[in-house]
Every structure is written in C-alpha cells, then in structure tokens.
Amino acid sequence: MEAQSDEKLFERYRQSADTTLFRTIVDRHHDDLIRFLNRLMGDAAGAEDVFQEAFLQVHTSQDSFDASRKFRPWLFTIAANKARDYMRRKGRRKTLDLSAPLDGSGDGSDGNSGTFIDLMEVRVPSPDARLDDEETSKSVQKVLDELPHALREILLLSYFQRLSYAQIADELEIPLGTVKSRLHSAVAAFAKKWTLSHPANA
Amino acid sequence: MPDELPLHLHHLNQPSETALDALVAARWNASKVPAVHATRAAAADALLRHLVPPVSAHAVTARNTLVNAVIARVMLAPKQSVAVDVEPVLSPDDEDAIDALFSADGVPARVPSSLRNRAERIAHIGRLIAGSTTDPSRSTSSASADVRKRERVDAAVARVRALPPLLRRSQSEGPFPFRRISAFRLRDIASAAAAVLIGGMVLWPMLAAGRQHAAKTLCRGRLANVAGAMGLYGSDFDGSMPMTAGFGGSVSWWDVGVPGRSNSANLFTLAKYDYATLADLACPGNSLAACGECCPTAADWKCLSEVSYSYAIPTDKCKKQWGFNKPTVVLADGSPVVRRIRNNQRAYALENSANHSGQGQSALRSDGSVIWMTTPVVDGDNIWLPGLVEAALELAQQHSRSGSGQSLIIRGTEVPTRPDEVMLGP
To answer: Is the Cα dihedral A165, A169, A174, A176 positive or negative?
Structure first.
C-alpha cells in the first residue's frame, strides 16, 4: 500500500471510504505539510489547526479532485488557502492573494527602484552547518516572518513542492510570469534579509 | 539606503535569476543544474535548504496524535456532494422565447415567428407544470368542465363581494399586482437572484468563520474569569479546588442533576457560592447553556446539555490543588466522549468538543493559564479518558494502527488513579 501513488490511494479511498487508506495519505504527507505550515505561519498551534482543516477539506471535497492531476499540489494549495484564511481571521497579518500586485512595485519585477542581489555574494551557511540547529531554525523563521505573505507563500509552496514554474502556475491558477517574478523577488528578499541578520557568518 | 527599502523591491541580478530558473527547472536539485549556473544555483540551494525546519520540531507522539485527530474528524465529517454545483442554464434563445411569451400574455400565437416554436414548447411545459395539458385558447371544453369553471368563478365573485368595502376597492381598482413584474424580464430577475445567491455563498462562510472566532475569544475570556474564581475559592479553602461534600466520584459522575453524584456539581459550587456567575460557566458555543440567575437552592445544572465545560474529576485520594507546581488541565470545553456515550452514540477518543464545531477546545490549567488545544491530548494524556482506557487504546493501536476507530467503553464510574492524571467530566 505504501508504494502506491497518492493519486491511486486517494482514488481507492474515494471508492471505498476506507479510513486506513486516508490515514496512509495523512501519514505520508504529515512531515512535509506540517513543516510547510510551520514556516508559512510561524505558529505551531495554528499550523496543527490548519493541518487538520486541510485534510478535512480534502475529505469533504473529495469529489471535486481531478484524478488526472497530482494530489500533493492540490493538498498544499488547500493548506495554503486555509493558512491564509486562518491568519486573516486572527488578524495577525495583512495577507495578499498570490496574484495581487505588491505595493508600489507592479508585479515586483518591473520596478526600476530597488537593489539587485547576486547570489554569489549571499552569505550562505556552510555546508556542514547543522540543519537541525534550533537557533538557525528560529533565525530562518524570523527572516520569513518579515517577508510579505505573498512572497513567503510562493517561496514555500514552490520549494516544498519542487514543481516547475509551469506546474506552479497551473496549480495556483496564476500567470507563469507572476510566478517567476514573485519567486525571484522572494529569493532576493530572503537572501538580503538573511545576509543582514547574519553579518558574523561573512 | 538600500537596506531600508521594502523587501519586495530587492531583485536578483540577471545571472542569479537565470541560475534560480535553472534550479527550479531541475526541481531544486542543484547537482542537475548546467555547469554555467552551478555556483549560483548551489548558493541558492544552500540558503533555501534552511527553509525546512528541524525534524525534532514535531515529536513522534505529537505526530501520531495529530494524524489520529485528523482521522477522527474525517470519520465524523460528511463529504460534500458535487451534484449541487451543477445548475441547469437556459439557452439564450429559450430565455428570449420566455421573455417574448411573457410580453405576449402567455399566448404563443402573438410571439414573433422566429421564436414561436420555442414559445409553444415553453407554453406546453408551463401547462404541464400548472397541471393542464390542453391549450386554453384552442380547447373545446366539455359541459362538465364548463360547469366546474362557472362554479369556481361564482365562488370567487361571492368571496370578493363578501370582503369589506375598502379592501374590495383596493383589489378592484388597482391593476393586477403581478402585472408590474412584466416591467422586468425574467432573466433580470434570475440575474438578481443569482447575485443574491452568490453573495450569500461568499458571505456565509465568512460570517460563520467570524462567529466561530468570536465564540473562541469569548470562551477564553470566560475561562479567564473562572480562573479568577478558582483563585478566590482556593484562597478561602486552603488551595483546594471546588468539590462538594460527600462527592465520591465512584458512582456515575456523569449523572447531571442527581444530588451528590455528578462531577458537574463540583464546578457548580463556584456559581452557587457567588465565586462566578452561571454566564462565566457558559461557553458561547453551547446554545443550550444555562446563563441566567443561579437559583439559591440549586446544587447542579438540570441536565447535561446545560453544562458547557468539563471539570477535572477529583477523588479523596487525588484532590485537585489550584496553582499546583506542574500545571495540568482542570477545565475544558464539554467532553464529546461523555456526551456521545450518554446519548448512546459511538464515541471517539480524539474527537474535539462540539462547542467550537469540532475544531478544538479551550482549556484552563491549574496555574490559571488558558490554552487552545487542537486535539484532546496534552503531554501524552487524553483529557477525556481514564488512564486505563487510554492504555487499552494504546495497546490496540500497537496491534492495528487504527486506534482512533476503537469503540470506547466508559461506565462513568472511573476515577483518576494518579494525582497528575487528567480526566474531565461530564
């Protein structure tokens, strides 16, 4: 059962309503989805809340799933939408749709003002840096929290799903050009902020 | 200063953009990026690898609890039917034919020839709906039908004559009220109805979510009031938490309203002796909660549905102390396990309280803090269940990974066996 694709498992669940199949799906995506939500929301309790809501939505909307598409992007898109609703309800942050223009910068790609970041000059952590270092993790979260929600969302969605631009645009139903420019801006903003917050690593 | 610019005004330079595009095209696998972009792609990869939080951020036990909680909620949630989304739509020609038929007072012969065929079919459907398949303009009525028709007309006229003069005038003088509608086309009315429907569909979930959020906030506020009441009670009674005299806890602690038996009576003590009001002990998510004046002779709520919160079951051996060093949950939104078992329904160990639509429960801890729990498990302890039942479930889960679906057998006489064991009821 573990070897079956998500799509086949979900199809079998839709036909049989066997909760052990659904459990396998939840179990399989738990780690990635909870990490994604933790990073997106910066709130562990909220992430658990949204995790449950996302799978509940998957269950209640099972008939609307297009079996010809991939399950994982569908799940992550549902989770991202639920997270956005959650944060809007809590009033913690002003959130923007992914397709909405950013303040004063059009789509973020054609503004003439601003700085240009060269990835060659970014102070990246050393290859042997411990990824499970709690301090590093907190530091990353702090940097992410300072990004506009739309940038944080596109960065995390694309990184955790590892999809091509075309697939992201297709799943999120936003223009391919917007996906590209948003991801460029997101990586630039993250790199800039990271460099500023880690001068000692230079 | 560039550093003071809004973050979205920072851009990658051209080589970096190309390297990032190549990295995305390689599905974020830097080793597969063409050599010309490899250095920058590796830098991006090294930087973004830190987006993945540490594995230890989510312990294995919490992971299992969360997965089980999802399954428990899924088992209780009905799936949506997609059939309701499919709404039949008339073709533009049929819409025009309907409009034309209405303008022609329902007579297809007066409809322009281009739409007449459609209008005739629509008129026929209309007669089917009205219960008559004969065209009144073409029919040759039988004698008996004429008689019935005359009788109906006479009866109607007689009723109009019987009306008071003023009312009769208003009905006879004014135009037939529905004629005014003919100023609108049917499609206009349909459009307006669709706009109202769509507006409702958009607004309703937002309003519902807003209401749920407000209920959660109010609930937390009320638990904070109860914390104050617990503190006052504790200072009057040597740090103890409310417990009625003679409560044994070993005989049906869920018999709400039966003197000396239900655990709810222990909590009711706060209202009975004016440490708190009944409103403080009423969750806004419980529409049946009692929140008026507390009757001086009352010692408990009248029935389970009036009780909003489940309270830690005390025993003589395990008396609860307010402000105890290690904070434990002492009060939370009503236990769904108790409510289901009392209603002869199947109970689920990981179901959340119904007070907040199954999303979770607010809980008051013995140090006065109020927390929101997305599952009924805290520090590995299920707040709805006796320790023995939890142990049995764990055993069952080890053998068949479907512990959340196990039937729960609780008799209402179980009591905590350890001072730090949390078990709430009713």
So the answer is: positive
pLDDT digits (tens, 9 = 90+) for A40-85: 998 888 898 899 999 999 999 998 898 888 899 899 999 999 998 8
Nearest residue to B365 via CA among B315, B334, B322, B308: B322
Phi, psi angle pair for B321, to nearest 5°: -115, 130
CA B73, chain centre distance (Å)? 12
pTM of the model: 0.56
Beta carbons within 8 Å of B391's beta carbon, 6+ residues apart: none
Please state, in angstroms and rounded to a whole number, the distance separating the CA atoms of residues B198 and A129: 53
Distances (CA, A) of B305 to B252, B269, B283: 17, 18, 12
What value, to the nearest 5°, has the Cα angle with vertex B68 and ends B393 and B63? 105
CB of A1 within 8 Å of any CB in chain B?
Answer: no
Cβ–Cβ gap A193/B43 under 8 Å: no
Q: Is B44 on the interface with A (CB under 8 A)?
A: yes
Chain A closest-CA separation from residue B413 CA (Å): 32
Instruction: Pull the structure tokens for residue B144.
Output: 């008996």
Residues 6+ apart with CB under 8 A from B367: B323, B324, B327
Beta strand pairing call for B381-382 and B329-333:
unpaired
Whether A63 contacts chain B with CB within 8 A: yes
Whether the ipTM is more than 0.85: the answer is no
Per-residue model confidence as pLDDT tens digits over B175-210: 444 444 445 566 777 777 777 777 777 777 777 777
Q: Which of residues 171-190 of A touch B (CB under 8 A)?
A: 180, 183-185, 187-190
Instruction: Mention every residue, 6+ apart, whose C-beta is less than 8 A from residue B342.
Output: B254, B304, B426
Instruction: Measure A179 CA to nearest chain B CA, in Å.
Output: 11
Nearby residues of B136 by Cβ (< 8 Å), 6 or more positions away:
none
In sequence order, what are the residues at sequence separation of 6 or more whose Cβ sits closer than 8 angstroms to the Cβ of residue B127?
Answer: B133, B134, B135
Helix (H) / strand (E) element for B365: namely strand B361-365
Look at the block and give the residue holding tokens 């086949």.
A8
What type of residue sits at position B340? R
Q: Please report the DSSP string for B76-117 in residue order.
A: HSPPPPGGGG------HHHHHHHHHHHHTTT-GGGS-HHHHH
Task: Let me know if B90 is exposed, middle or buried by CB neighbors in 10 A (0-12, 13-18, 19+).
Answer: middle
* DSSP of B255-268: -TTSTTT-THHHHH
